[in-house]
Amino acid sequence: MKFGTKAIHAGVHPDESTGAIMTPIYQTSTYVQPEIGVNKGYSYSRTQNPTRHALEKNLAAIENGKFGACFGSGMAAIDCILKMLNPGDEVVSTNDLYGGTYRIFKTIFEKYGIKFHFIGMQNAESIGEYCNENTKLIWVETPTNPMMNVIDIVAASKVAKQYNAILAIDNTFATPYLQNPLDLGADIVMHSVTKYLGGHSDVVMGALVCNDGEIAKEIYRIQNSSGAVTAPMDCFLVLRGIKTLHIRMQRHCENGEKLAKFLAAHPRVGDVHWPGFETHENHKVAKAQMRGFGGMISFNFVGNKMENALEMLKKVTVFALAESLGGVESLIGHPATMTHGAIPKEEREKIGVVDSLIRLSVGIEDVDDLIADLEQALK
Question: How far is CA 51 from the centre of its chain?
């Protein structure tokens, strides 16, 4: 079954009682049991809910996985993975990553005796230099947020297997439409479902997908024990959003390419970060493991003055200044003060998150209007 068909049909079935083609919203906390120990597969909605169950099966299918689990946010999904570790364990992570991920690593789990190494992974074979017998997790974003670095998942998987570590991939930017990390050797795929999978800026949710039954068992244990689950109404909205994921991603990619090329030719713009350029450091890797280059772009200004970035942010009219990404509408942000404000300035600048850096989440509007908006804002 091809992707577009899976996105619409996988994990969902007409309601048996009414024939409703859309998965019902099971807005219930509990379920009547005819006798002790006997139920219809559901006993309490923290543990399992039919609407959430349908979404989890759908997410697993589009990631070519066997097991899916949904959480109240992307951070709750990351929290679940980290709770699989023990004091003394070590994590090797990309140094260019979402600020919220850095924050939970450093301010929550580091104090419980987990050691984190933040490294450049553009040469994935070098990950092994930071691994040892205590390494239990290798955390990879690809493409990274916000510098759009691409990490070779196959190469990272070889290192993870060598050290018997779990390889977890944040696949939020690429989505299952463009990239399937489990097929490339990853153990767990994480999504901020809030972004492209929901796609309409109306849900906050996270998800994990895997193939290994033992890993899945631990994920479900933590999901149920910690209780950071998502509500049935939100699951319904994401199921609806995923039905158009392939169509939306096609337009995100088309618009992203045109805007990246426009920005690269603009005299006020310095570096443009987008994996589709042949000059991108790991363009060949992106071309091999992705089916397109997405709608996320970052760029800085010639001279790297923050006032240039702030001036532009005030002048856009179609792009909206806002946190988040992946919705149908185009968003613009300033990573240094917004999404990556939790990362110390000296650490940010080492990886290229300079004061004039702008991040674009290119939506599915008419691309001519998007180009015209950037053009007038850059004057």
Answer: 22
